[in-house]
Specification:
With 232 residues, this protein is of the alpha/beta class. The protein is built from ten helices and five strands, in the order H-E-H-H-E-H-H-E-H-E-H-E-H-H-H. The radius of gyration is 19 Å and the shape is globular. The N terminus is likely disordered.
C-alpha cells in the first residue's frame, strides 16, 4: 500500500512539472491584439512547433501605448516578473503620424521598454498593418503609403530601445505582393480577418520561438492556406 501511495505521489509531481509552459507571454495592445483570438492562435502555432506558450493580455479597445504606460494594472503586471516575453502593440494609426508618434508613441515605448527590462522580460514590438484603403484623412491615400509609415515607425522604436519586431504589417504586404486573393481584412477595412490574424500570429510566434516548421490549420485557415502563408 505504501509503495502504491509513493508511486501516485511521484506521478503527481511529474504531472505538475510537465504543466509549466516554455514561455509566459504578456500582450499589451488593443483590438488588433485580441481580434479573432489571435493570442490563442499563437499558442496553437507554437504548440505545433513543439513549444508551449501561456498568454495573457491587457488590450482594451483603441488603447494607445502612452495610455498603457500610465495604467497601474499594466505597470503592476509587468513588474510582477511573471512574464518572460512582453509584446507591445501601438494603436494602428498612431505610428504613421509623425507628430503624434514623436510626442506620444516613442516616449511611451521607451517607458514600457524600461519596465520590461527591469522585470527581466524580452520585448517584441508587434508591427500592425496599413488599412486596406489607407487613411486619406491623415495623408495616406493607399494601403502602401500607410504601411510604409507604420513600418518605419516600428523600425525606429526597435532601433531606439532594442527588442524584436513581429512584422505582421510587412507580412500583409508580402501576401499582397504574391498576387494571392486571400482576404486579410475584416469588413471595416482596418481590423484583420481570421486569415489576417493568422498572418500576424505566424509573425509573432516566429519572433518568440524562431523559424517555424509547421503551420497548423486553425478556424477558417485550412492546411493549404497555412502552408502557403508559412512559405512567404
Amino acid at each position: 500500500m505504501m509503495r502504491l501511495l509513493l508511486g501516485l505521489i511521484a506521478l503527481m509531481a511529474l504531472a505538475g512539472c510537465g504543466g509549466e509552459a516554455d514561455h509566459n507571454v504578456l500582450f499589451i495592445g488593443n483590438s488588433h491584439t485580441w481580434y479573432n483570438d489571435m493570442p490563442d492562435m499563437v499558442e496553437e502555432i507554437a504548440d505545433a512547433n513543439g513549444v508551449s506558450i501561456d498568454t495573457h493580455m491587457i488590450a482594451p479597445n483603441g488603447t494607445y501605448l502612452h495610455e498603457h504606460a500610465e495604467n497601474d494594472e499594466v505597470v503592476e503586471t509587468i513588474n510582477s516578473g511573471t512574464y518572460d516575453i512582453i509584446i507591445f502593440q501601438e494603436q494602428s494609426v498612431a505610428p504613421a503620424i509623425p507628430q503624434f508618434a514623436s510626442v506620444n508613441t516613442y516616449p511611451a515605448a521607451q517607458q514600457l521598454d524600461h519596465l520590461a527590462d527591469r522585470a527581466g522580460a524580452q520585448v517584441i514590438w508587434y508591427q500592425t498593418w496599413g488599412w486596406k484603403n489607407g487613411f486619406p484623412d491623415q495623408g495616406f491615400p493607399t494601403y502602401e503609403s500607410m504601411q510604409n509609415a507604420v513600418s518605419a515607425s516600428y523600425e525606429r522604436i526597435a532601433s531606439d530601445n532594442g527588442g524584436k519586431i513581429a512584422r505582421a504589417g510587412d507580412a500583409f504586404a508580402a501576401v499582397k505582393a504574391s498576387g494571392s486573393d486571400l482576404e486579410l481584412y475584416n469588413a471595416d477595412g482596418s481590423h484583420a480577418s481570421e486569415t489576417g490574424s493568422y498572418v500576424a500570429a505566424l509573425e509573432i510566434t516566429e519572433a518568440i520561438v524562431g523559424p517555424l516548421a509547421e503551420a497548423p490549420s486553425i478556424g477558417d485557415v485550412d492546411g493549404d492556406t497555412a502552408e502557403f502563408l508559412l512559405g512567404l
